[in-house]
Amino acid sequence: MQITLLSALDYAGVATFAASGALMAANKRQDVLTFIFFAAITGVGGGTLRDLLIGADVFWVADPGYVIVCTVVAILVWLTRGRMLPGQTLAWLDAVGLCVYAVVGAAKALSLGVSPPVCVVMGVLTATFGGIIRDVLAAEPSILLRRELYISAALVSATLFVGLRMFGADWTWASGIAVALGFVVRAGAIIWKWHLPAFTPPQKRD
Amino acid sequence: MQITLLSALDYAGVATFAASGALMAANKRQDVLTFIFFAAITGVGGGTLRDLLIGADVFWVADPGYVIVCTVVAILVWLTRGRMLPGQTLAWLDAVGLCVYAVVGAAKALSLGVSPPVCVVMGVLTATFGGIIRDVLAAEPSILLRRELYISAALVSATLFVGLRMFGADWTWASGIAVALGFVVRAGAIIWKWHLPAFTPPQKRD
Amino acid sequence: MQITLLSALDYAGVATFAASGALMAANKRQDVLTFIFFAAITGVGGGTLRDLLIGADVFWVADPGYVIVCTVVAILVWLTRGRMLPGQTLAWLDAVGLCVYAVVGAAKALSLGVSPPVCVVMGVLTATFGGIIRDVLAAEPSILLRRELYISAALVSATLFVGLRMFGADWTWASGIAVALGFVVRAGAIIWKWHLPAFTPPQKRD
Fold first, then answer.
1. ipTM score of the complex?
2. Is B183 part of the contact surface with chain A (CB cutoff 8 Å)?
3. Largest CB tally within 10 Å, which of A77, B8, B140, C156?
């Protein structure tokens, strides 16, 4: 199990999303196994979809470390009864995870020669799909339908990263700037409720 | 990006389903990014599942044109506030898309040497899965559970196409007849509420 | 179509889950096509996810027999109006299917050289994912959130099988013991309502 910067970020992202999955199980007053199930699905769901779509080996199948990380995180949340993770702390961890993951997802697709627009899609999917599956399985209103900047933050990070790399920026700068600006967008959504205008249907005449 | 008849039909089908996804986002009064997300998922969802199942490269990962089409359609629906797509127009577009897509899906599977019964399944999945994911993510009653002939129309198109090809009909005739008869079934469902008999549970004795 | 013990068990598991999918369609008073759709998705869903994740050819795409089995089961449930499958009978069939499938899933992953912890995950996913998709598509409370030992039974079977194989037990013994003990867990859940302790949130101080 080779540990590089990318894979360290990857583990951090998985652990963060796993914690949000375990907290969802806690909200539903489930048992410890369901904690692990939700932690794992939320933690690895987005990256799994990315890998299937780009035809790569699914990352956690090749490396059992990810499943173990999700299991440990779920058990920790269970044992501490979520006290280590009050709502706001998790929202901020999740914001970091979201932007890091958008960059990791886009970077993996880029490295496999996928075209830039599709790399942006992969970044967004990697960052958001775990949360989407978590909400669907828990029968909660999907994060997709909450009117906050969530997908947008992932989109900013993924687009900036892919764009900067296209213009020749080196990996460190591109990922640093991309994560930082995506995080600003998400932070604005958390603190000042930033959002995009919602659709307003046209007046009906009948 | 090579444009053949099959891929032109393919783009038309993706655009139609993308519009239905964007309209779902409009019903939920979402922002423009969510329009794009729903348009993309509905537009490419069925074909994505087909490609994963038959082990082909996922079509929109190899060709960024599909993601761009979905994005453009979503923005158009947003800008025109859906006025270009009143309910009935969309139902008819969707009916065409459904039958075209059932044939495209079955044809792609056939061309990869998949056995006929499984090709029929692939046609039905390609045509219906985008709409199923759209409904699940929007937390709407699934099209699966509405008692109209929807899956049936896809099944008629896919079965006829595969059957006619088995009996040696050429591509043009097979696809034309298959799309036309599937469309008749769906049109009957839209206009005269055609449906299959629903299950009636046996009398209970207790 | 080569029939070995493993594939015979496989067909039995698919048929059992297909019956539970068809019964869900019966509860929703759907038409016969929706019976087939739910039977197929529930029957092959878990194994499909497993095959996609481990990079194997999807089992029912290569062998049309599975789709045919699901179709036949769905039509039988429709024709007999579910009378052949009263609730309790199905719960017991499902319990057998669950444990057999957990072993079949883990065994397939092991045979492809996947690491033991991931093989356990594959066993659990294979056994439970069909039912999870069934519940999501039917908009029913997910089996994930019911507080009975269901995932646990699959986990016991998958873990025992993988563990016994690691310690050199032969295939027959490992699978027999694994299925039997998983079944005991599930039987306890059905008869005596065995369950794991649910999460209790900490007292709030504010």
1. 0.86
2. no
3. A77
